[in-house]
Write a structure and sequence with these properties.
The complex is a heterodimer of chains A (317) and B (207).
Chain A (H helix, E strand, L loop, with lengths): L5 H24 L3 E2 L5 E3 H7 L10 E3 L5 E4 L4 H9 L8 E12 L5 E12 L3 H18 L4 E7 H11 L3 H12 L3 H10 L5 H6 L3 E2 L1 H9 L5 H19 L6 E4 L12 E7 L5 E7 L1 H5 L7 E7 H12 L2
Parallel strand pairs in A: 1-5, 7-9
Antiparallel strand pairs in A: 2-4, 3-4, 5-6, 6-12, 7-10, 8-9, 10-11, 11-12
Chain B lengths: L3 E6 L2 H8 L18 E3 L5 E6 L4 H7 L4 E5 H7 L4 E5 L5 E7 L12 E5 L2 H8 L6 E5 L6 H4 L5 E6 L3 H5 L3 E9 L1 E5 L1 H6 L1 H14 L1
Parallel strand pairs in B: 1-3, 1-4, 7-8, 7-9
Antiparallel strand pairs in B: 2-3, 4-11, 5-11, 6-9, 6-10
The chains are: A alpha+beta (317), B alpha/beta (207).
Chain lengths: 317, 207
């Protein structure tokens, strides 16, 4: 953002920094320690572990010996690479970061955005999930704006879809329709393909109030993994209930995560008056496997620009 | 504070969308022949705005409108990050490839020129066909393009096919079916969940 005068810019920056500091202090108080991701990453290594990444978006830099590097496009995979290769394995390891990421923007420029986030590695899943959600809620509360936390559990749907043994084209189509919440076209497709599935018929109604959704889903699970995912969502519900936060949470078992390495809980925080998510996160044990080690991992990140804006508006209302 | 804004496509599609709220507590009373673009229902809990059909998706994605009533053609063309909540089952027609009789949609060893109002959609349709295409974007009167030699074929919405017929064109291939849809901004969907579910119910009853 460009400001008209330098004094305006300085005071806006001061405000932003004060919020960053508050967040960092909070993370420290919860036992998380800061980690600095590397700014340059070896391009070949990056491609190996991020084969799905759109390579036209990464900003490339030519090193002295003509090796290609990229400016870090995301932070989670960057610090996972850093940690997992050298970790003595003494869990849990809790870190937070406050850095920038880079991508090529359509106009030909380079886009720089701020990311602040936390990662909890190697802790007992339910303990870590609860802690991470508690921190996400605390941060949403600090914005002084009405908010909703959207919570999903990708295991419920994923393990079911695996069991259906669909061909990849049908599965792709079904997932796309689910991601768009396009119930009418989904029902038509299931009919056309003669896929009889009470769960897919009902999945788009499995959202809203946590208690009601879990009750609905309890009647329909068909395998051990689905039951397990309901159990873990239920224990999170107990936590929200205890904090009197149930009305801030919207459970959505049909949620298709934006990033396909999420497996387990997935969540997004939305605030009134914005069209983007302020917080997004989830469990990503699957991703750690790509770095040669299977570790329980969960975290989230905050859109710092948006959070600052909301907080400013919230305080000056 | 929990009011909902609905963007409607100007024209028949939006007018009919507004009709669906008739006799519900979200109905609006409008003076006749007004050129106003913003209306509220009598409880002022819902704001209806009339916008250009091709802009509905943008209003909804950016969140200035929580919901939108728009044709599936615009959803396919714009490909925005929104929820597509309901098929409203009116405004039915379909996308079709049209050209002269005896013409095919294949042109070996040559570039197939296609005129359309929907370039992004056409690009996706022909993506996996192994046919080299040149897409020519037009704002209207698409049927003219093959007649005057601007393109080989066209991709357009076809309702009854009478416009095609009058211009000596026929349907070569039917593509996606089109109808009016209810779309939602992803953040609004959560923040205003209860109101949006109520609106879905009203529209579902009207179908």
């Amino acid at each position: 953002m460009e400001f008209k005068s330098i004094s305006e810019e300085l005071s806006a920056l001061k405000y932003k920094k004060s919020i960053e500091r508050e967040m960092e202090d909070y993370f420290e108080s919860k036992g998380f320690s800061i980690i600095e991701p590397d700014i340059f990453q070896n391009y070949d290594d990056f491609l190996l572990s991020n084969f799905r990444h759109d390579s036209s978006k990464t900003v490339k830099v030519l090193g002295g010996d003509s090796k290609i590097f990229i400016l870090r496009p995301d932070i989670t995979s960057n610090i996972l690479g850093k940690i997992l290769s050298r970790w003595e394995g003494k869990p849990p390891l809790k870190v937070y970061y406050n850095s920038r990421v880079y991508s090529n923007s359509p106009g030909g420029g380079i886009k720089e955005s701020y990311q602040v986030g936390v990662e909890s590695l190697g802790d007992k899943p339910i303990v870590a999930d609860t802690e991470i959600l508690e921190m996400a809620i605390t941060l949403m509360e600090s914005l002084k704006t009405p908010y909703v936390l959207e919570l999903g559990s990708s295991k419920y749907l994923d393990s079911y879809i695996r069991e259906l043994k669909l061909n990849s084209k049908d599965e792709f189509q079904i997932r796309n329709l689910l991601a768009k919440k396009n119930k009418d076209e989904l029902i038509n497709l299931l009919k056309k393909k003669d896929i009889k599935s009470p769960i897919l018929d009902a999945i788009l109604d499995m959202e809203g109030n946590m208690e009601e959704v879990i009750q609905k889903a309890r009647r329909l699970y068909v395998n051990y993994e689905m039951e397990g995912s309901l159990n873990s969502v239920e224990s999170l519900m107990a936590f929200f209930k205890e904090r009197d936060l149930l009305d801030k949470v919207n459970l959505d078992l049909s949620m298709i995560p934006d990033l396909d390495y999420y497996d387990g809980i997935v969540f997004k925080g939305y605030c009134q008056g914005t069209s983007k998510k302020v917080i997004s996160g989830g469990r990503y044990d699957k991703l750690t496997e790509m770095f040669g080690r299977n570790v329980s991992a969960v975290g989230f990140m905050i859109d710092l620009g948006l959070a600052t804006q909301l907080r400013y508006r919230g305080e000056n209302r | 504070m929990n009011g909902v804004t609905i963007a409607l496509a100007k024209g028949r599609l939006g007018e009919k969308g507004l009709d669906l709220f008739k006799d519900t507590d979200m109905e609006i009373i409008r003076e006749k022949d007004t050129r106003k673009l913003v209306f509220k229902d009598y409880k002022e809990s819902i704001t209806y705005i009339f916008v250009k059909p091709s802009d509905v998706m943008t209003y909804v994605e950016k969140g200035v409108a929580d919901l939108g009533i728009v044709g599936k053609d615009m959803i396919l063309e714009e490909d925005k990050d929104i929820y597509e909540l309901m098929d409203l089952n009116y405004g039915k027609c379909r996308f079709a490839i049209a050209g002269f009789k005896d013409q095919t949609t294949v042109k070996e060893d040559d570039v197939l020129r296609i005129a359309s109002k929907y370039p992004n959609y056409v690009k996706r349709v022909f993506e996996d066909r192994g046919q080299k295409v040149e897409i020519i974007k037009l704002g209207g009167s698409i049927e003219l393009a093959p007649i005057i030699g601007l393109s080989d074929i066209i991709v357009d919405l076809v309702e009854t096919g009478s416009t095609l017929k009058e211009n000596g064109l026929v349907i070569l291939e039917e593509l996606d079916p089109i109808s009016a849809r209810l779309v939602a901004n992803k953040a609004s969907y959560r923040i205003k969940y209860d109101t949006i579910k109520k609106i879905e119910k009203i529209l579902g009853g009207a179908k």
